[in-house]
Every structure is written in structure tokens, then in C-alpha cells.
Write a structure and sequence with these properties.
The complex is a heterotrimer of chains A (about 725), B (about 180) and C (about 210). Chain A has about 725 residues and is α/β, with parallel strands linked by helices. In chain A, helix 5 packs across helix 13 (about 340-355) and helix 8 (about 255-265) crosses helix 12 (about 305-320). Chain B starts with a strand and ends with a strand. In chain B, a hairpin with a 5-residue loop joins strand 6 and strand 7. Helix content of chain B is about 20%, strand content about 25%. The chains are: A alpha/beta (about 725), B alpha+beta (about 180), C mainly alpha (about 210).
């Protein structure tokens, strides 16, 4: 045989390590696969606590490792966020760890193909382009947007070191109205003391569906002690199932209900007189104006019978101060309607009238651990010299908008205007989760440089110039977290459980290395462990203790009551001078939603949305076991009121066409008595259009496909439920 | 000798499917297999509406139709109340699937029948079944129905509980608290 | 065929599954692969029909362009077919009955039992994988290189069980490639790989050892 003409030149994939290889003996059980499997089952298991990344709740979990692979996860009983349990998403999300389709190394897009490149090449090219963009357009033309988790302080430091103010979170699509309403009234965003409450009213929030395991457990605990749970929601949500009463309300009118409740409390003198006199300002002005909103008026607006409004208000007041109206999150008023800000104002005031601010069983300010700073060991960069261009905090634009969050869905607008030229998207997928995808795509495509840091090839990653793969959550350590603080502060850590399988890196390391290549490395002369140690220093716990336990309680116990709030007056601002100065109603008043369905048109509906327990954001739809459940239980359908469906000749399970002014789509229908006739409800988490995510691709719809690009005038939020759709049977 | 049973408080089930996934993990099931399922029921007309989820799994009946019809004796009831399938004796005739009124048996790709086993190996070590511990609202309770001091026995005495398809005289060992 | 010759044979087959290069394209146009494998087929009394894909009268640069596109289409994770060259993908993730992760019995994942076994085997033989195969010690390219190594160090007794335990998925890989209507080059490549392993298995079955 003549081999020598064939040329083979390549580098080898296996190298000799120099460790001694034993002589083979027949019967050595490592060589036979079956025997090796038997032996490997006996290997000891390691337990490592960390934080689940399956959704935004960040539950404390113990991860078990065997033979270098993750073998099981379980909840940590002491973790405030989940009290020992794990939801289906936590289990389902693990698929991505060993999925063959996770991004394995840095990618550069050439045309419509992706090329693998080295980290060094990626960093050099990105840094060069960023510095050139800054030179030609100024540092404010670079942005960073992420879903905010504990690593965000690294991102903020990076942006400030570059001189750019443009750090964004996803807040404008989620909760900025809620935050602004509470901050304006009581100075900060509070929490809810569910376990000790005697009467819990929840408007819109759905902790049993958009799972907050800790909250659900505490609600069950409160109920076992005799508490009453009332759920106000246009749809019979999962939380309504365990409620004592479901109060269906016309969507967009929660403000009217709250104003009427305040009216009753004032008129019948059910409010906490002492608290109001000592700890609030503006009650007199409230008293003057609230007569405009009696329950009979509210009944016409929100379609809740006035008798019910009166009864619920009296019941709440009777249970005070251990009575609360849930502070909310995204549902109903987080970022939903033109009147969301006013709604939160009314919500905060209604609670204040119950005298429940920082009281047991009511609204309370959790004890958050005060973490140490990286300075003076690592001086922080100066604050940028220019302000954000999205108008947050600017009178005449979005004065009450959260400057810290910025307006994420303004990024495509700023890109189209040429004000943002390049940027980073980290742990976020705006092409799917921002309203009006066509416009979002146009905006992000206009950027001269788009760098996406993600674990999978999401919609946004698909159009990036560079994709930098972050290690999967179980493969990396993050900055320490204080998210789940409660009556006592709790600090937790997400730490590496298994070594990265591919050529990926943790987000914190990527940021530090980017900084070094950008020439601002002097602000990043630390690694994750040192930074975490500095943050933990004032708490008098060591990093080793925290890594061993996963969660630790620190600091003193919470105490009832307060001296001064973080408001200008130090008291609850029923009347807000800040709002008066900015030209907004100083006392909440009724405002119609921006749009409403046409009552004379049987095809006209408002489109609202919410979460299912098995899905979240755009990250779970591609997990096979979770999507199996969606298919098995027919969960991808649009909910519609039965009578309305019959009017249109639609039967349960039929295909229908849904159309708004910016988009249309097809979906099947679930006809039910459990939803207000004026609206239809879409479960979120579906509608994935990244061709790379084959389990999820083209299944279901997203409400974002129908939502125009809006910015509410107070904080600049998306007004996510201001969607009118036209529905026809196919 | 303990005689195991379960209480399912339907009023607490919010249909999150955590029990399906926990059971799936515990029993090493294939992607589409499940030993428990949920039946959603709606009541009333808007706005006087309510709904509930009914979690269903093998009822480990005291008068089990699946055991009666099994030609090989693979499907059998143990002294501790648990109904199991001996996969070595099972011939995959599916007679038991037809006989079971609760629709809780599955045929594995290897050809034998399987279903909820009350996580019995786990229970014998002093643990609770996976569907019990994973639940955030505490829908399920598990224990020894023959022990009057057990949490489950006291609960059954205190509350009026129903049984699923009781009229078929299968004598299930799962008791339901309904709304 | 001597052990060195078998080792070299593995190397040649391995090179067929590397990302295409101009070197590979030139050798195709020169007919090098065709003649190399034809010798093997003749001495084993097999038809050379399956080698047709190794013949081409196109220019090397055109061959390279075609193969680049086809390689991306078939094997790149961003391509249309996404055919996996990793053993774990084709097998149940773990045989450990106590593993309570939700995809324990599923196929289609990496770092399955076979990958972990290979990591143990490599360290037994004093070897370790290159960084680029970190999560994929059971990638076809690594397994073929290991097989070549085993021939070089004359470990024929172990080669038999290695082929049985760790290259038994090649028929599934072949099925996936054929189903996607491949370029003749890749059809021939998978056919020759499958044939070689089949013949080796037979040969090692027949020969006896103490």
C-alpha cells in the first residue's frame, strides 16, 4: 500500500500529559463501559449552594454534583425567595447546561453566517470599534442594557469609566410606573408582610402563576391563620384559585376601584386617624377631591358592583393595620396603562390610610444588607458628564422616569436617530421582549456595533456583530446578591458548581477583560472573589462562610414603625408637591386608559397578558420538558370570554386571527367564563422567532407583536396593555 | 405495618406542574411521560366563576381493578397499601390500562406498564414522595392511614373528604379535599 | 495491514471530517483520497462504488467553496441540519438510575456517560483533550484520534471494546447524514468510516487472544 502521497497536516486533539498510564489488565473495570457505569454510580456526591437563574426570582438552590456533572437541584429552606422549593422552570432550565446548541465560543457575524473567533480577536476588534465610535461621536453614543441582577454594578462601572451615562435595565417594559408611584408617595419601594396579614388584597399581581414561591408559601401561611385573600384581576388567575374571592374588573380601570375605596374610607372615617394625622401630609386636599369618586361612579367605570367595593373596603379597614393591598409588580400597573402611575399613587395612598406603612402584616420596608464598596481600594470612575438622552428625570420629557433604569425600549429610537451608535446587550433579548419587533429590529440593525453577551443564539444575538458567550449559570460565580431581604437582611451568592464546558466566560470576567482592552483597566484591577470580599466586609461574614451556606442572614431584625421617610416632607405624601411642580396631579385623579375597545364592535378586544408557571421571559420556551407541558395541556391558547366567542361563531380550540395596528398573528382560542368580556389574554413566553431555538421556534404569539411603541408621559413606560385587537375566526 | 395513603387538597392546587416535573425527575421518566396529571374544572358563569385543578395519580386502590384483570399477577397490591407493577412479570397486554378508571398508567418503551409508586423506595428510607415535598402550596399530604396519630389521619378525621370516582367502588387510598 | 497502517488509516478518515481546507480540496482534485481508499477496498474485496464522492474534476477552489458551504449546512450548529458529531448526543444521557435531573433518560445532550468514561480513559492512558473539545471528549474527531493512538501503541485487545462501546453510534450518524441529501464527498466519507469500523469489528471478533 502506498500512503506517502497523501498529505495530512493538522494539530492533534489529544496530547500526552506525562502522567503515567497504567498497563492494561483484562478485568480492569475502567476499560469496560458497563463495569465503569456500575462503579461510577457509587461516586460520592458534592453539594454546592447557588442561585437558580430559571427566572427573575433567583431562588436559593443546592446543586448536587457527581462525576463532574450536575446530578440534581433542590431548594434551600432558609432562602427567603423560595423557602425550600423549586418550580418547574428551575428544573427545566437545566437543559441548557448540556444542550449541544449553547454558544460554545466567541462568534463574529460575516454576512449571515457566524464564524468562530478567539476571545483575544473578539476583544481587540470590539475595543477598537468602540474607541473609534467614541472618538467620532462622544462616549454617550455607547450603551449597555441588561436585565438587572447583581452583576450590574460591573456594567455600570464599565459605562461610567467610558464616560457614558447610557446604562439601561428592562424596567421600562416591566415596573417603572410601580416604582415611581411608591417612591413619590412613601420614598422607596416597599415589600409586603404576607404571613402576618389578616386581609390581603391583590390587584393584578399573580404570585402563583408568575411564580414567587416565597410569596405563595407566605400567603398559604396567612390563610392557615385565618387571613382572607381577595384577588382583583380581569382574568381568573392562578392566585384567584386560592383566593376567597375573585373580583373581575374591567382592565385599565383599577384606578377607579382604588379611588372609590379611598372615597369610602374617607367618607365613613374608616382610616387610621392617628397615622394620617401624624405621618402623612395632604389629607385635607384628598378629602376635598375624593368626593368625585363614589363607589356608584366606580361601578360604571370598572364594572365591579358598588356593593362589593363598599364591602371589601369595610372588611379591609376592619382588619387594619394587618391589612394590605399588594404593592404589585408588572401585572395591572407595573407598566401597563396611561393611568398606571396614578393607579400606583392611589394604591400607596389607600394602603397609607390603613395605617399599615412599615407595620406587621402590612406594607413594610425590608432590611437590605448594606454592602461594602469597592473603593477606596478600587476607586470608582467619575460620573459621566452628560445625562441620559432618553429623557428620564428631565422636566418636560419623562420627569418621573427612573434615571437608574433608563428607558430600554427607547434604545432602538435613539439608534434610529443616530444618537446611539454602538452597544452591549447582556442577559437580555429586546428583539423579542420589547414592543413592536419590526421597529426594534430596525433600530438595533442600524447600530454600527452590536455586541450581545448571552448563552444561546437568541433573536437579538442572531443580528449581533459579535456574540460573546457567557458561561451557563451553574458554570460561573457572580457578584453577591441581596435581593431576598425581608424582616432580616439576607445575602446570597451564585457560585460556580461545575467548570465551564466550552470556551465561555462569566459575565464579570468578560466585563473586566473588555475594560482592559478598552484602556480603562485601571478601574478593574480586581477579580470576582476580591470584589465579593470587599462587598461582604461590613457585614462581618466571610466569603467562605457564604459559599458554604449559600444564604446568610445578616444585621438586625426589622422593627415596626418609622421616624422619617425618604420623601421631601419625611412623611407619606398623599399630596405631592413634587408632582405639583412638575405639572402632574398632586392628588391622584381618574384618567381613562389611552385606548379602549369599541363596545359596538364584536371583534374589538383589549389584549392583556400574563405569565404561566412553566414559562418566563423568552428563555424557557426552548426547554423541551417545559414546552412538552405547554403542548400536553394546550397552554398556548388565547383566553377569550365564552359569550364573546359565541358571538363571533368561535368554538373552544378554534384558530383565530388577531390583528392590531402594528401586527397580526394566528392562534387557537380557549373559551372560558373566567375572563372579563372586554379583553383577551395571551400567556407570555412564546412567539420565539430565532430559527436557532428549534423547540420554541414559531410556537404561539407574543403580546409585543401587537404593542405599538409607546412612552407614557410620566415615566416613559411601554403601556403594555394599551393594545386593541381585532379578532376574527379563520 | 404502615398502610400508606395520601390527602390531596384541591383547593390549594394552582396548576403549576411542579409535581409533574419533580415526579418525572425522581422516577427518571422520558420527556413526554408523567405519572400524575391535572384535570382542570371550571364552574359558574362570568362573573360568578371559579375553577380548580384536580391532581390525579394512581389511587393505590384497596379494590384495584388493575390487579383483578392482570393475567400474570404483575400488577399487585402490597400489605403497605402500595399498588406496584412487577416489570419482569408484565407482558404489556394493556388490560390494566383499560380497566383503570383514572387514566394513570403508562406503557414504557421497553414494553412494561408503570405508574405512580408513591416513591416507595424513598418513603421506606423515611422521606416523602417527590410530589409532596415540591409543592409550594402544600397540596399533598402523605402518611400512614392506620396510625391515628399521624398528621394525615388527624386531617382526614377533621375534614370531610371525598374520593375520586368513589361510586366505582375502587376504594382509593387518596382522599380529596374539594372546594 | 500493519498496526501503523491502521493508525494512519484512522488519521485519513479523521481528516475527511475536519472543516474543509484548500489542502484537502487539492488532494481531492488530485484523486489522492480515491486512490488511497481504493487500495483498501481492493485488498478487502469490496466494490469501490462508495468512493465516487472522492473523485472530482472541478478546480480545488471550487471544491473548497462547495465543501465549506456543505460543512456549514450539515455540521455547524448554525447550519440547517445541525448533525451532531458527538457520541453523547446519540445516547441516553446517563444510566445512573438515581440521577434526578429531568433529561436523565433523554438523548440529544452532551457530556453523557460516554463522555465521562472517555475522560477517565484518557487519563488512564496519560492523555488529555485539547481545550477546543472541552465539553466534547467524545467528539468523532477525538475518538478517531484516540483509536489511531490505540493502534499505534498496539492495544488491539482494548480496541475491540472501544469500537463496540464508543463507536456504535456511527450508523446513526450515517443515517443522519444520508437523510440530509449530502454532497457526494460526505456521503463517501461516512460510508468509508462505517465500512472500516464494521470490518475491524469483524476482524477483531475472529482473532483470539490469551
Amino acid at each position: 500500500m502506498n500512503f506517502h502521497k497523501l498529505r495530512l497536516t493538522r494539530r492533534g486533539f489529544l496530547k500526552v500529559t506525562g502522567a503515567t498510564a497504567g498497563a492494561i489488565s483484562i478485568g480492569s473495570n475502567i476499560l469496560d463501559f458497563k463495569q465503569w457505569v456500575e462503579a461510577s454510580i457509587q461516586t460520592p456526591i458534592q453539594k454546592i449552594p447557588t442561585i437558580c437563574n430559571g427566572c427573575g426570582n433567583r431562588c436559593g438552590i443546592n446543586a448536587f454534583v457527581k462525576n463532574g456533572r450536575v446530578w440534581k437541584i433542590e431548594g434551600i429552606p432558609e432562602a427567603n425567595g423560595n423557602l425550600g422549593v423549586v418550580c418547574p422552570k428551575g428544573h427545566g432550565y437545566l437543559h441548557d447546561l448540556y444542550s449541544p446548541y449553547r454558544i460554545k465560543g466567541p462568534l463574529k457575524r460575516v454576512g449571515d453566517k457566524f464564524q468562530s473567533i478567539s476571545w483575544e480577536q473578539a476583544y481587540q476588534e470590539i475595543a477598537q470599534k468602540i474607541n473609534l465610535i467614541i472618538l467620532q461621536n462622544g462616549p454617550q453614543s455607547i450603551f449597555w442594557v441588561n436585565y438587572p441582577q447583581s452583576n450590574h454594578l460591573y456594567a455600570l462601572r464599565l459605562m461610567h469609566a467610558l464616560g457614558s451615562p447610557h446604562y439601561f435595565t428592562h424596567g421600562s417594559t416591566c415596573y417603572t410606573a410601580r416604582n415611581a408611584g411608591w417612591v413619590t408617595t412613601v420614598g422607596e419601594l416597599p415589600s409586603v408582610d404576607l404571613s402576618n396579614s389578616k386581609y390581603i388584597m391583590i390587584i393584578g399581581r399573580n404570585p402563583a402563576g408568575a411564580i414567587d414561591l416565597g410569596q405563595v408559601k407566605r400567603i398559604i401561611e396567612a390563610k392557615s391563620k385565618g387571613a382572607k385573600l381577595v384577588v382583583v384581576d380581569p382574568r381568573h388567575s392562578e392566585t384567584a384559585i386560592i383566593a376567597d374571592e375573585w373580583i373581575p374588573i374591567k382592565p385599565g380601570t383599577d384606578l377607579a376601584l382604588l379611588l372609590a375605596m379611598i372615597n369610602i374610607m374617607v367618607k365613613e372615617e374608616l382610616y387610621d386617624k392617628k397615622f394620617v394625622a401624624e405621618k402623612t401630609i395632604g389629607f385635607d386636599q384628598l378629602e376635598e377631591q375624593i368626593f368625585n369618586y363614589p363607589p356608584e361612579w366606580a361601578e360604571k367605570v370598572c364594572e365591579v358592583p358598588s356593593k362589593t367595593i363598599i364591602r371589601i373596603t369595610r372588611e379591609l379597614a376592619q382588619a387594619k393595620p394587618k391589612a394590605l393591598i399588594h404593592r404589585g409588580y408588572h401585572g395591572a400597573f407595573g407598566a401597563q396603562y396611561l393611568n398606571s402611575f396614578q393607579t400606583v399613587r392611589a394604591l400607596a395612598i389607600a394602603n397609607s390610610l390603613l395605617g399599615n406603612i412599615n407595620r406587621e402584616g402590612g406594607i413594610y420596608f425590608p432590611k437590605v444588607a448594606k454592602l461594602g464598596e469597592l473603593q477606596p481600594n478600587h476607586p470608582a470612575p467619575e460620573l459621566p458628564k452628560v445625562g441620559k438622552l432618553d429623557g428620564t428625570g428631565v422636566p418636560g420629557r419623562y420627569p418621573l422616569g427612573s434615571y437608574g433604569d433608563g428607558i430600554a425600549h427607547a434604545i432602538p429610537e435613539l439608534a434610529l436617530r443616530g444618537e446611539l451608535i454602538g452597544g452591549f446587550v447582556y442577559h437580555y433579548n429586546p428583539l423579542r421582549t420589547n414592543p413592536n419587533p419590526k421597529r426594534v429590529i430596525a433600530g438595533y440593525k442600524k447600530l454600527e456595533l452590536l455586541v450581545v453577551i448571552d448563552t444561546v443564539l437568541s433573536e437579538t444575538a442572531s443580528i449581533a456583530h459579535y456574540v460573546l458567550p457567557e458561561s451557563f449559570y451553574l458554570e460561573r460565580t457572580e457578584a453577591i446578591d441581596t435581593k431576598h431581604s425581608g424582616k432580616r437582611a439576607q445575602v446570597s451568592i451564585q457560585q460556580q458548581v461545575v467548570k465551564p464546558m466550552y470556551n465561555t466566560r462569566p459575565g464579570t470576567q468578560i466585563i473586566i477583560e473588555l475594560a482592559k482592552h478598552l484602556g480603562i483597566g485601571k478601574y478593574f484591577n480586581f477579580d470576582i472573589d476580591e470584589a465579593n470580599r470587599l462587598r461582604l466586609k461590613p457585614l462581618k461574614v466571610t466569603l467562605e462562610e457564604l459559599k458554604e451556606k449559600g444564604v446568610l442572614f445578616v444585621g438586625e431584625e426589622w422593627k415596626e414603625g418609622f421616624d422619617k421617610l425618604e420623601t421631601p416632607s419625611g412623611k407619606v405624601e398623599i399630596y405631592s408637591k413634587t408632582l405639583e411642580k412638575l405639572g402632574f396631579p398632586a392628588i391622584p385623579r381618574w384618567e381613562e386608559p389611552l385606548v379602549s375597545p369599541d363596545p359596538k364592535d364584536p371583534h374589538s378586544f383589549r389584549l392583556i397578558h400574563g405569565k404561566q408557571a412553566i414559562h418566563t421571559h423568552s428563555m424557557t420556551a426552548n426547554q423541551p420538558i417545559l414546552m412538552s407541558i405547554s403542548h400536553r395541556y394546550d397552554l398556548i391558547r388565547l383566553w377569550m370570554n365564552k359569550k364573546r366567542g359565541e358571538q363571533l361563531g368561535i368554538r373552544d380550540g378554534d384558530w383565530i386571527k388577531v390583528k392590531s395596528i402594528i401586527g397580526e398573528g394566528k392562534i387557537r382560542v380557549r373559551l372560558t367564563e373566567g375572563i372579563h368580556p372586554s379583553c383577551v389574554w395571551l400567556p407570555s413566553g412564546y412567539g420565539i422567532f430565532s430559527k436557532h431555538l428549534k423547540v420554541a421556534y414559531d410556537i404561539g404569539l407574543s403580546y409585543n407583536d401587537f404593542l405599538p411603541t409607546y412612552f407614557d408621559p410620566t415615566v416613559g413606560h411601554v403601556m403594555a396593555s394599551e393594545i386593541i385587537v381585532n379578532i376574527t375566526k379563520i | 405495618m404502615p398502610r400508606y395513603g395520601m390527602v390531596i387538597d384541591e383547593t390549594k392546587c394552582v396548576g403549576c406542574h411542579a409535581c409533574r416535573v419533580a415526579c418525572h425527575n425522581q422516577n427518571n421518566l422520558e420527556e413526554k411521560e408523567a405519572y400524575n396529571h391535572l384535570e382542570e374544572r371550571e364552574y359558574g358563569k362570568f362573573p360568578n366563576f371559579t375553577r380548580e385543578f384536580l391532581p390525579v395519580q394512581c389511587q393505590h386502590c384497596d379494590n384495584p381493578p388493575c390487579v383483578k384483570v392482570c393475567p400474570t399477577g404483575a400488577s399487585h397490591k402490597r400489605k403497605d397499601g402500595v399498588v406496584l407493577v412487577n416489570k419482569d412479570k408484565c407482558i404489556g397486554c394493556k388490560y390494566c390500562i383499560a380497566a383503570c378508571p383514572y387514566n394513570v398508567r403508562i406503557i414504557k418503551k421497553e414494553g412494561y406498564i408503570e405508574k405512580c409508586r408513591f416513591c416507595i423506595e424513598f418513603v421506606e428510607k423515611g422521606e416523602m414522595p417527590a410530589c409532596v415535598t415540591t409543592c409550594m402550596t402544600g397540596v399533598r399530604m402523605f402518611g400512614d392511614l392506620d396510625d391515628p396519630e399521624s398528621e394525615i389521619s388527624k386531617y382526614i378525621i377533621k375534614h370531610r373528604l371525598k374520593q375520586y370516582k368513589a361510586e366505582l367502588n375502587t376504594k382509593p387510598r387518596i382522599y380529596y379535599r374539594k372546594g | 495491514m500493519s498496526e501503523e497502517e491502521r493508525a494512519f488509516f484512522c488519521e485519513v478518515i479523521l481528516s475527511l471530517f475536519l472543516p474543509p481546507s484548500i489542502d484537502m480540496a487539492e488532494q481531492i482534485s488530485e484523486g489522492q483520497f480515491y486512490f488511497f481508499f481504493k487500495n483498501y477496498m481492493d485488498s478487502n474485496n469490496h466494490q469501490e462504488k462508495i468512493l465516487q464522492g472522492f473523485l472530482s474534476d472541478k478546480s480545488p477552489s471550487l471544491i473548497l467553496k462547495e465543501l465549506d458551504e456543505e460543512y456549514y449546512r450539515l455540521f455547524s450548529e448554525f447550519g440547517k441540519e445541525r448533525i451532531s458529531m458527538v457520541e453523547s448526543y446519540y445516547k441516553q444521557w446517563t444510566m445512573d438510575p438515581e440521577c434526578s435531573i429531568s433529561f436523565a433518560k433523554e438523548k440529544g445532550f452532551l457530556m453523557g456517560d460516554s463522555a465521562i468514561h472517555l475522560l477517565d480513559l484518557f487519563s488512564y492512558f496519560g492523555l488529555e483533550t485539547d481545550d477546543s473539545f472541552k465539553g466534547m471528549p467524545d467528539h468523532l474527531l477525538v475518538e478517531l484520534e484516540f483509536l489511531s493512538y490505540l493502534y499505534k501503541i498496539r492495544e488491539e485487545r482494548f480496541i475491540k471494546s472501544f469500537i463496540k462501546d464508543h463507536l456504535d453510534w456511527i450508523p446513526q450518524l450515517k443515517k443522519g447524514i444520508i437523510k440530509s441529501n449530502p454532497h457526494p464527498f460526505y456521503r463517501s466519507a461516512i460510508e468509508i468510516l462505517d465500512l472500516f469500523l464494521g470490518l475491524e469489528k469483524e476482524r477483531l471478533e475472529v482473532e483470539k487472544y490469551e
